[in-house]
Fold this protein.
Amino acid sequence: MNQWPGLIEAYRDFLPVTTETPVCTLFEGNTPLIPSKIIGPALGIDLYFKYEGLNPTGSFKDRGMTMAISMAKGEGARSVICASTGNTSASAAAYAASNGLKCVVVIPKGRIAAGKLAQAIAEQALVLAVDGNFDEALEIVRYLTDKYPIKLVNSINPYRLEGQKTAAFEIVDQLGEAPDILAIPVGNAGNISAYWMGFCEYLEKGRSTKRPSMWGFQAAGSAPIVLGHKVDNPETIASAIRIGNPVRWRQAEDAVSESNGLIEMVTDDEILKSYEDLAGEGIFAEPASAASVAGVSKFVHQRGVKNGAKVVCVLTGHGLKDPDAVGLMANKVQPVKATNEAVEELLDAGGILA
Ligand code: AN7
């Protein structure tokens, strides 16, 4: 077979796998780096989108999950568990199902996007909805995995970050060099930590000559790292990053300070604006992903970034994950009578028939 082999085979030399490790892959990774046609030129920067929504379950979580599930399977685990704002549960369920492992997902009741819940259900996970938020769900998962032989596959699991760091490798391979700035949404802060590991390793191995500044963005209603304290009732329309006590808090702060980067917050309105701007480039990403673009749009000039700087925004999840969020867009469906004349009249009014 002549196709992309999945990220474990592609980056085996950089990963803690052995010849004994069973490779559990859905052929994740190798996602496109899309040059921005509108947002980048308007800001005067050389902007790219790392479109992680094109992974097999529609988010970057697959990069971490191929590693976490392969290692769990190699260690003889029979079941895995995670807390999730949605994408981790969808990914864990898919990789577990395809590798004969039972999967339990603990989610905040009524607070995860419809597409993600649909995936976890379809993939036969045991879906438990708790009356609480993500942070509380994760506490329960930590308690259970301390006590029973069930593998935790949240990003506390170090193999998750090992897999996710490969996205940084891909960006360098695609650009031919590290970018000046890497912008990324921050929830539990695993991904920003993983990217930083990846950029550092590639520099050490001589695959690049520099590392980017890491720009992390939290939603204003759930911005514990920016505020410097836990948030008990995190709120934002970007449900994926509705997290009040990130597990990789310290590591994310280190990445930001070592890279001379920044961690800032963006409001829901700013996120929605960028969500629409991205759609205007033909890219449908979920609201949390748009936080990276919102952050760049807000801070590029404020922080004196030079014209033509190479900036990569990580678009962490596909727009189809969260179909309800589309209802927040300005564009609405127009009801019309089922006649030629009624439709003609509307198109004419819109200037489309000219
Ligand atoms: C689309 O699925 O935490 O900072 O449980 O789904 O590594 O947590 C999701 C996180 C960004 C934040 N964008 O990444 C989960 C979960 C999307 C996400 C993040 C998530 P981290």
Summary: The two ends are 51 Å apart (CA to CA).
